[in-house]
Amino acid sequence: MDGNGRWAEQRGLPRVAGHQQGVRTVIDVVDECVAQGISYLTLFAFSSENWGRPQAEVETLMGLLLEFLASQRKRMLEDGVCLRVIGDRSRLSDKIRQALAEAEAETAAGDKLTLTLALSYGGRDEIVRAMRKLAERVENGELAAAELSIAHIETALDTYGLPDPDLLIRTSGELRISNFLLWQLAYAELYFVDVFWPDFGAVELRQALESYRQRRRRFGLTAEQTAEGEGLSNSAS
Questions:
Q1: What is the number of structural domains in the chain?
Q2: Predicted TM-score (pTM) of this structure
Q3: How far apart are CA 64 and CA 70, in angstroms?
Q4: Which of 2, 79, 125, 158 does the annotation list as catalytic?
Q5: For the domain that residue 102 is a member of, what is the CATH number?
Q6: Which stretches of 37-122 are DSSP H helices?
Q7: Distance CA 159, CA 116 (A)
Q8: Looking at the chain, which terminus has fewer C-beta neighbours within 10 angstroms, N or C?
Q9: Quick check: 51 and 88 in contact, CB under 8 A?
Q10: In the annotation, is 4 catalytic?
Q11: Which of 28, 50, 88, 199 is catalytic?
Q12: What is the pLDDT of residues 87-115, one digit of tens each?
């Protein structure tokens, strides 16, 4: 979700106005995902690098997070939205951590959409923390280094239990993934749009989904192999 600050600057507004409008966009996009029957949505809300921004802006973002949790909790319950958080929570304030834990617990039964917020998150940091967990298991004799597998690594990641993303959408015209879900995006389809996040809504989301539907995902196989697999899948359904 990129471009809040630039959106505000173009309009001669303070950066906080862009973040406020960005929160409204989050609500609209979540609503559209529920309407579209999408089961999982992960939003990169605050990166591990964002801690380096001016303190006033960081405090503003954390305040908006608290407002979002307070104002949307009832709606998430009504819409069947299950909230989940990934990232290094140790850097968040006690107040933020408590609010997140309460929201996660209250919405845990939501079965329409799993909304994952990446907070104080960085892909490299996540992998390092996962490796530390696995190293401890090896040191404790719970796991042999020679047995280490992809499955072991995935169980140690913040996203354990979530499917890998099918589609990554990056707003604001930037053509990079900015340290987001580095492990999980291995076979995701990438979609870059020259629209700031505050201007990204239901129409833009549907355009991204239509682009995704027109693609053929091969996962390292040939087009002929995937076509054969799709034929078998269709005949069995």
A1: 1
A2: 0.91
A3: 10
A4: 2
A5: 3.40.1180.10
A6: 55-79, 94-106
A7: 9
A8: C
A9: no
A10: no
A11: 50
A12: 999 999 999 999 999 999 999 999 999 99
Please check whether residue 167 is in contact with residue 177, taking contact to mean a CB–CB distance below 8 angstroms.
Answer: no
Structural domain of 155: 4-215
The tokens 């992960």 sit on which residue?
Answer: 42
Instruction: Give the model confidence (pLDDT) of 132-166 as tens digits.
Output: 999 999 999 999 999 999 999 999 999 999 999 99
| Euclidean distance between CA atoms 209 and 191, whole angstroms | 9
What one-letter code names the amino acid at 21? Q
- SS3 for 182? coil
Res. 221: pLDDT tops 70: yes
Cα 71 to chain centroid distance, Å, stands at: 20
Length of the chain: 237
Residue 236 forms part of a structural domain: no
Alpha-carbon separation of residue 120 from 13, 46, 47, 211 (angstroms): 26, 5, 5, 30
Sign of CA dihedral 138, 143, 147, 152: negative
